[in-house]
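ok, trying the design again with the full structure, not the truncated one.
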Protein backbone atom coordinates (compact mmCIF):
# COMPACT_ATOMS: atom_id res chain seq x y z
CA UNK A 1 0.00 0.00 0.00
CA UNK A 2 2.90 2.34 0.78
CA UNK A 3 4.39 1.80 -2.68
CA UNK A 4 1.03 2.55 -4.28
CA UNK A 5 0.84 5.92 -2.47
CA UNK A 6 4.46 6.72 -3.36
CA UNK A 7 3.84 5.91 -7.02
CA UNK A 8 0.63 7.95 -7.09
CA UNK A 9 2.26 11.01 -5.54
CA UNK A 10 5.31 10.72 -7.81
CA UNK A 11 3.02 10.79 -10.85
CA UNK A 12 1.16 13.82 -9.47
CA UNK A 13 4.50 15.51 -8.77
CA UNK A 14 5.75 14.82 -12.31
CA UNK A 15 2.56 16.13 -13.89
CA UNK A 16 2.81 19.35 -11.88
CA UNK A 17 6.56 19.81 -12.49
CA UNK A 18 6.25 20.30 -16.25
CA UNK A 19 3.68 23.08 -15.72
CA UNK A 20 6.18 25.57 -14.30
CA UNK A 21 7.24 28.71 -16.19
CA UNK A 22 10.81 28.90 -17.44
CA UNK A 23 13.16 31.87 -17.66
CA UNK A 24 13.72 32.98 -21.27
CA UNK A 25 17.37 33.79 -20.49
CA UNK A 26 18.66 30.68 -18.71
CA UNK A 27 15.78 28.20 -18.59
CA UNK A 28 15.52 28.29 -14.78
CA UNK A 29 12.25 28.24 -12.87
CA UNK A 30 10.45 31.56 -13.09
CA UNK A 31 8.47 32.41 -9.96
CA UNK A 32 6.05 35.22 -9.31
CA UNK A 33 6.85 37.80 -6.62
CA UNK A 34 3.81 38.95 -4.63
CA UNK A 35 3.36 42.27 -2.87
CA UNK A 36 0.72 42.62 -0.16
CA UNK A 37 -1.77 44.02 -2.67
CA UNK A 38 -0.99 41.18 -5.07
CA UNK A 39 -1.78 38.68 -2.31
CA UNK A 40 -5.07 40.37 -1.54
CA UNK A 41 -5.82 40.68 -5.25
CA UNK A 42 -5.84 36.90 -5.65
CA UNK A 43 -9.08 36.78 -3.67
CA UNK A 44 -10.61 40.23 -3.41
CA UNK A 45 -11.43 41.85 -6.76
CA UNK A 46 -9.32 44.99 -6.40
CA UNK A 47 -7.90 46.56 -9.58
CA UNK A 48 -4.57 47.59 -8.07
CA UNK A 49 -2.20 46.87 -10.92
CA UNK A 50 -2.07 45.39 -14.40
CA UNK A 51 1.42 43.93 -14.00
CA UNK A 52 2.75 40.84 -12.28
CA UNK A 53 6.42 40.61 -11.28
CA UNK A 54 8.55 37.48 -11.63
CA UNK A 55 12.09 36.40 -10.74
CA UNK A 56 14.23 33.58 -12.09
CA UNK A 57 15.39 31.08 -9.49
CA UNK A 58 18.80 30.56 -11.14
CA UNK A 59 19.98 33.84 -12.67
CA UNK A 60 17.87 36.10 -10.37
CA UNK A 61 16.75 38.19 -13.37
CA UNK A 62 13.52 40.07 -12.72
CA UNK A 63 10.68 40.13 -15.24
CA UNK A 64 7.24 41.64 -15.48
CA UNK A 65 4.17 40.56 -17.39
CA UNK A 66 0.52 41.35 -17.52
CA UNK A 67 -1.56 39.70 -14.84
CA UNK A 68 -2.66 36.30 -16.04
CA UNK A 69 -5.94 34.42 -16.01
CA UNK A 70 -5.00 32.76 -12.73
CA UNK A 71 -5.72 36.00 -10.91
CA UNK A 72 -9.08 36.35 -12.66
CA UNK A 73 -10.02 32.74 -11.90
CA UNK A 74 -9.13 33.00 -8.21
CA UNK A 75 -11.01 36.30 -7.82
CA UNK A 76 -14.09 34.98 -9.62
CA UNK A 77 -13.97 31.77 -7.62
CA UNK A 78 -13.80 33.68 -4.34
CA UNK A 79 -16.69 35.97 -5.30
CA UNK A 80 -18.72 32.96 -6.48
CA UNK A 81 -18.10 31.05 -3.25
CA UNK A 82 -18.99 34.15 -1.24
CA UNK A 83 -22.30 34.44 -3.09
CA UNK A 84 -23.03 30.70 -2.79
CA UNK A 85 -22.38 30.66 0.97
CA UNK A 86 -25.50 32.75 1.59
CA UNK A 87 -25.84 33.33 5.34
CA UNK A 88 -22.31 32.03 5.93
CA UNK A 89 -20.55 34.72 3.86
CA UNK A 90 -18.05 35.32 6.67
CA UNK A 91 -16.52 31.91 5.84
CA UNK A 92 -15.30 33.51 2.63
CA UNK A 93 -13.13 35.91 4.66
CA UNK A 94 -11.30 32.96 6.16
CA UNK A 95 -9.63 32.31 2.81
CA UNK A 96 -7.82 35.67 2.32
CA UNK A 97 -7.04 35.98 6.03
CA UNK A 98 -5.52 32.49 6.15
CA UNK A 99 -3.62 33.31 2.96
CA UNK A 100 -2.13 36.50 4.44
CA UNK A 101 -1.19 34.86 7.74
CA UNK A 102 0.33 31.72 6.16
CA UNK A 103 2.18 33.53 3.39
CA UNK A 104 3.60 36.02 5.90
CA UNK A 105 4.69 33.38 8.43
CA UNK A 106 5.91 30.79 5.94
CA UNK A 107 7.68 33.19 3.58
CA UNK A 108 11.16 32.07 4.63
CA UNK A 109 10.34 28.37 4.57
CA UNK A 110 8.30 28.17 1.34
CA UNK A 111 9.84 27.73 -2.04
CA UNK A 112 9.06 30.61 -4.37
CA UNK A 113 6.51 28.70 -6.46
CA UNK A 114 4.37 27.81 -3.46
CA UNK A 115 2.37 31.05 -3.38
CA UNK A 116 0.07 30.32 -6.31
CA UNK A 117 -0.35 26.68 -5.30
CA UNK A 118 -1.38 27.63 -1.76
CA UNK A 119 -3.88 30.18 -3.09
CA UNK A 120 -5.41 27.43 -5.25
CA UNK A 121 -5.61 25.01 -2.31
CA UNK A 122 -7.32 27.63 -0.14
CA UNK A 123 -9.79 28.40 -2.93
CA UNK A 124 -10.59 24.69 -3.27
CA UNK A 125 -11.13 24.37 0.48
CA UNK A 126 -13.37 27.44 0.41
CA UNK A 127 -15.52 25.83 -2.30
CA UNK A 128 -15.68 22.62 -0.28
CA UNK A 129 -16.94 24.67 2.69
CA UNK A 130 -19.39 26.40 0.35
CA UNK A 131 -20.76 23.04 -0.80
CA UNK A 132 -21.25 21.84 2.76
CA UNK A 133 -22.60 25.04 4.35
CA UNK A 134 -23.92 27.08 1.44
CA UNK A 135 -26.87 26.72 -0.90
CA UNK A 136 -29.32 26.14 1.97
CA UNK A 137 -27.21 23.13 3.06
CA UNK A 138 -28.60 20.91 0.29
CA UNK A 139 -25.22 19.15 0.05
CA UNK A 140 -24.95 18.37 3.77
CA UNK A 141 -25.14 14.65 2.96
CA UNK A 142 -21.43 14.92 2.10
CA UNK A 143 -20.72 14.99 5.83
CA UNK A 144 -22.54 11.67 6.33
CA UNK A 145 -20.56 9.70 3.74
CA UNK A 146 -16.84 9.50 4.50
CA UNK A 147 -15.75 8.11 1.13
CA UNK A 148 -17.69 10.75 -0.82
CA UNK A 149 -16.31 13.50 1.43
CA UNK A 150 -12.76 12.16 0.98
CA UNK A 151 -13.13 12.11 -2.80
CA UNK A 152 -14.68 15.60 -2.83
CA UNK A 153 -11.86 16.93 -0.65
CA UNK A 154 -9.25 15.33 -2.89
CA UNK A 155 -10.92 16.77 -6.00
CA UNK A 156 -11.33 20.26 -4.53
CA UNK A 157 -7.70 20.40 -3.37
CA UNK A 158 -5.89 18.84 -6.35
CA UNK A 159 -7.98 20.12 -9.28
CA UNK A 160 -7.47 23.85 -8.51
CA UNK A 161 -3.70 23.29 -8.36
CA UNK A 162 -3.63 21.84 -11.88
CA UNK A 163 -5.95 24.53 -13.24
CA UNK A 164 -3.93 27.37 -11.67
CA UNK A 165 -0.60 25.97 -12.86
CA UNK A 166 -1.91 25.51 -16.41
CA UNK A 167 -3.25 29.07 -16.45
CA UNK A 168 0.01 30.37 -14.96
CA UNK A 169 2.07 28.70 -17.64
CA UNK A 170 -0.04 29.44 -20.69
CA UNK A 171 -1.52 32.87 -19.90
CA UNK A 172 1.59 34.83 -18.96
CA UNK A 173 1.44 37.58 -21.59
CA UNK A 174 3.99 40.30 -22.32
CA UNK A 175 6.85 38.78 -20.32
CA UNK A 176 9.71 41.30 -20.45
CA UNK A 177 12.85 41.84 -18.42
CA UNK A 178 12.55 44.62 -15.84
CA UNK A 179 15.03 47.44 -16.14
CA UNK A 180 17.21 48.09 -13.12
CA UNK A 181 16.61 51.09 -10.86
CA UNK A 182 19.14 53.29 -12.62
CA UNK A 183 17.60 52.90 -16.06
CA UNK A 184 14.04 53.16 -14.81
CA UNK A 185 14.84 56.45 -13.03
CA UNK A 186 16.50 57.89 -16.12
CA UNK A 187 19.98 57.74 -14.54
CA UNK A 188 22.95 55.97 -16.00
CA UNK A 189 25.08 53.59 -13.99
CA UNK A 190 28.63 54.97 -13.78
Amino acid sequence: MSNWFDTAFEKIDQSLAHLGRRCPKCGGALHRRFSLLDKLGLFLPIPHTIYAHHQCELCKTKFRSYRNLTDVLLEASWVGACAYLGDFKLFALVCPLTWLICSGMGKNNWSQGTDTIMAAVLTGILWLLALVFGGDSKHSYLMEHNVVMFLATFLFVIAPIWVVLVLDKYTTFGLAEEEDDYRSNGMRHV
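Keeping the full-length input from now on. Residues 14-184 form one domain.
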